[in-house]
Design a protein that fits this description.
- The structure is a homodimer.
- Chain A is 60% helix and 8% strand.
- By secondary structure, chain A is mainly alpha-helical.
- The first copy, chain A, has a domain at 40-129: Arc Repressor Mutant, subunit A, CATH 1.10.10.10.
- Chain A has a three-stranded antiparallel beta sheet with strand order 1-3-2.
- The structure holds a DNA duplex.
DNA sequence: AAGTTGTTGTTGAACCGTAAACTTCTTTGC
DNA sequence: GCAAAGAAGTTTACGGTTCAACAACAACTT
């Protein structure tokens, strides 16, 4: 037989919270995407620009960038290709590894990020930060860190 | 001039939490999708089956269903059409409103849900419920309710 | 040093979601 | 009653994501 033990169903509270989570995430995404569309960007492209802007020389190896923005390599290739035609990024060969490709943000990309960032941050505030109680917001951070396995201070403060 | 006041940037903590959120959500989605793929479903299809199974006669108006699973009407039409070819749902005319279409779950759809549900619930536990501290999990629920504007008990308990 | 294995990044096809136009029907207001 | 406005679903075209196969290179292995 396969390992089909009795399923540990969620209790009523857990199920309510789980559905609240699904609803909340969907709502947040809707708002952020809608807002970024005014700048001709989606969340994936925006994140690419953010991570490039935070890196030395505004550049990052494709595989490194893919990990940071949680996109598959294939998806990143396609997305960066599109952004390249828009003049937001460009690509060059990696000097240290001839397999590698380095994506770098253009001046135009940088300018678009500077333009879009304030509105985006305001969206994040309106959609999440402002409506949520600060203690709950901190708990949200701990919860998501636990999900991704970030060590986090589980013990007592000293 | 446009209303470009000084942007209220996120402070270091808020930004860390926001990124934890993005990472956590992505991780949870990955796991749930990967698990459901074993049953030939994605999260959108699974949710359709769940909501149909909870409704009288295992049936729901398309627009009603669309609201519950947070899909656009267009998307739902496509998804249900696909599921219909798989034999998981079927469609019939709505008796009370001749514009309406009623989606209903087939026996096959019901059987697939019964088969997939335990594994899915286990995924939700492993990805979210189990790793997160119970108090933080409750706070997560309150936070997401605040995001979607669910009234919620903000005051003191009586 | 040659062969194996793993990594990096791209390609093209299939698939899915989005957006806008459109049909049919209901509801509203005069 | 009738025209206008609105709602329910579908359709089509387009764009983006996924998936599997692939080419080029690096890193081990012996």
């Amino acid at each position: 037989m396969t390992t089909t033990l009795q399923p540990r169903w969620l209790d009523a509270d857990q199920q309510r919270i789980w559905r609240s989570f699904l609803n909340g995430v969907a709502r947040i995404n809707e708002r952020l995407e809608a807002e970024l569309r005014c700048f001709g960007l989606d969340l994936g492209e925006y994140e690419i620009l953010v991570h490039l802007s935070e890196s030395p020389d505004r550049s990052l190896r494709m595989s490194d960038l893919a990990d940071r923005v949680r996109q598959s390599r294939s998806r990143l290739t396609h997305t960066v290709a599109r952004m390249e035609t828009k003049g937001l990024v460009s690509r060059m060969a990696c000097p240290s590894d001839r397999r590698g490709v380095i994506a770098l943000m253009t001046t135009r990309g940088s300018e678009l990020l500077v333009e879009a960032a304030p509105a985006h941050v305001e969206s994040v505030r309106r959609a999440l930060v402002d409506p949520v109680d600060p203690d709950d917001f901190a708990a949200l951070g701990r919860a998501m860190d636990a999900v991704t396995g970030v060590p986090g201070a589980t013990g007592v403060q000293d």
